[in-house]
Structure formats: C-alpha cells, structure tokens
Amino acid sequence: MGPLTGIRVIEVKGLGPGPYAGMLFADLGADVIVVERSSTPTGLAPPADKDVHSRGKRSIALNLKTPAGLDVLLRLVRQSNVLFEGFRPGVAERLGFGPDTCLASNPRLVYGRLTGWGQAGSLAPRAGHDINYIALVGALAAIGTAEKPTVPLNLVGDYAGGSLFLVIGVLAALLDVARTGKGQVIDAAIVDGAASLMSAFHGWQALGFWKRERASNLLDGAAPNYDVYETADGRFLAVGALEPQFAAAFLDGLDLTDGERTIADGRDGWPQAKAVIARRIRERTSDEWLANYAAQDACVTPVLDIVDAPAHAHHQARDTYIDIAGVTQPAPAPRFSQSQPATPQAPHREGADTDAILTEFGYSADEIAVLRSSGALS
C-alpha cells in the first residue's frame, strides 16, 4: 500500500498539469476520483486506454451545470480529503463548488486551485500556456542559442512549476489538517512555481556568476564540458563533466594531441575548446564512445529518445518503466522502503465508475436512475 492509502482526492477534470497531479496522488496510493465533464470522449485528451495520466484513478461523469449534478459533487466532497480544479479564477464559484462552498460542506477539506497565472494579479483572468509562464519568470530567456530562445518541452512550467507545486501544497496542507483540524485553499500558480525553480539562478546572478546573455554560462550550453556533441553515426552524447576530476576524465578519454588538449582545456576560450571536442567526437560512433567511457566517471551518457530510453540497462535494472495495458510508461516515483505503492491500474474510460462510486457514497439504484434521467449524470 502506498503512503497516501486512505486519502480520497476529487479531481475535477482539466488538461495537462491537473491530470498529472492526480496521477501522482494515485501513484502514491490515494483514491483518486476524476469528475469528468462527459462520459463521451471530448477529443481534448488521449483515448482512455492510452491516457497515462488517468492510470490508477476512478471516473465519474457529472453534469455540474445541473443542481443535481452539483449536489452529487458536494456529497463526494463531504467524504473526501482533497478536491482540486484547474479552472480560471471564478469559474468554480460560478458553477457552485468554489472553496467557500466546499469548505462549508467539509471544513477539513484541502481545496487545490491550479492555474497558470494564479487567483490574483493583472494576468489572472487571461489565458496562457507553458511557454508564456516560463517567459515571464526568466526561464525561457535562458534556454536556447545565442540567437534566440528555444521552445522546450512543457516540463518546466506546466508539470514542474504547476503539478509538482500543487502536490507539495496539498501534502503540506494535509499535514496541517492533521495538526489543526482545519482545511484550506491552495493557490498553485504555474508562474509562481516556475519562478521558484529559478531560485538558484537569482542567487548566482546576485553573486556575479550568471550572465544575462543566453548561451554564455556554465549550465546553458556555453561550456565545453557541459554540452551535447554529435557522433559519427548521427547520434548525440550528453557531457556533464562539471567538476575538475570529471572534466579531466572526459578529456583523457578523447585521446587528444598535446596541442588539442591545451585548447580543449578551455585556455583559449570555450568556443575554441568546443570546436576541438566536437571534431574529435564526430570521429567515432555513439556506441564506440560509450564503450570508451564505460569504466570512467566522466559524466558521459547517450541522448536517448522516448522510444529508446526504456531499454537502457540502468532503467531495466531499476524497473524505471512499466507496461500497463500495452503502454510503456514511467513507473511511480519516488520509491519507499515500507509503503511502496502497487502497480497502477490501467486507465478507466470516462465515467466508467459512475454507478459504482455513487453506490459507494450511499445512493440507491433508484436514486441513480433518477439522477441519470434528470441529466445530472453525463
């Protein structure tokens, strides 16, 4: 059983960061009930059997625009520990399940609100996406080449700055409920989380260790010992040899001439060093270089894509990836010594558990039939 066994979480279905946060709660053992807008796929998410974020959850389809559908949700709230939603500010209130209403129904409830811009601020009512949030906190400006920023995967904003900070907030609030008996509201803004992720860079900038110019710092692709190099077979090596002993091991493995080694050490500048290293690495294939560095701590790894990554020996040894219903996907993380979660169940289709959940919460078969005929169950 996972460490969150016994905790019930109501996830009002949204996109991206919300479902991922719900997946994390489910992976940790929580009973996650997803409130779907409809039992008919909307086309805004992958098919249920391929939607990794839906694993381990149960699904109920409610029409929250009907009084009866809203009453069902509030009944779920009264018997749950957490509810979270990802609507723009004010939408949940207009639908009738804002934090004041839910906390009045269950004073111990932790109510999570996951948005891009937060519940207050000049941009709070506006639309946005990952690229906008990380642009506003300085992260996007630091990613890319000297010529222009590079659009990254939406990991830094949506998932790290959003999902993970929501989960941290909810877990902290659950501990506070155990101490005080009172629930509270979590305002998890992606822009706030992404700003927090930039903390170290603010410190380095204040110390004069970080230049504002992109691709001119130790960790942004400028340094020869922290970069990606193409091999003879068109693949890539990631080099992260930051510390002196690792950098020395990396350069030793290149078998450079004395003159090349002097340049590769960076004494004539980083661009010149990178040119020497790049030219040398293009002389061998990726497998040849990996064999060359296999016995050395030189911080050299292959750049694997999403298809190749699960087959790597390290992941195989740790069971980093699992198969659920024919879909290869990351296993739950982190790992626990005493309360390791079970393998997640395969995703359920939208609304698949509606009747079972309603029965569990005390509805009779006749009451469920009335709800269905009234349009409360979508």
Query: What does the average pLDDT come to?
Result: 95
So what's the oligomer here? single chain
The radius of gyration is: 25 Å
Number of H/I helices: 15
Give the terminus-to-terminus CA distance: 32 Å
As a percent range, the share of helical residues equals 25-40%
In N-to-C order, the SSE pattern is EHEEHEHHEHHEHHEEHHHHEHEEHH
- Globally, the shape reads elongated
Structural class: alpha/beta
Number of strands: 11
Task: Flag low-confidence runs.
Answer: none
Strand order of the largest sheet: 3-2-1-4-5-6
Could you characterize the architecture of this molecule?
- It is a single chain.
- By secondary structure, the chain is of the alpha/beta class.
- The chain is 38% helix and 14% strand.
- The chain contains 15 helices and eleven strands.
- It has helices at 17-27, 67-78, 91-95, 99-105, 130-136, 155-180, 190-197, 199-206, 244-253, 258-264, 270-281, 286-292, 313-318, 354-360, 365-374, and strands spanning 8-12, 31-36, 58-61, 82-85, 110-115, 184-189, 226-230, 236-240, 300-302, 321-324, 327-330.
- The strands form three sheets. Strands 3-2-1-4-5-6 form a six-stranded parallel beta sheet, with helices on both faces.
- Strand 7 (226-230) and strand 8 (236-240) form a beta hairpin.
- Helix 1 crosses helix 6 (155-180) and helix 5 (130-136) crosses helix 6.
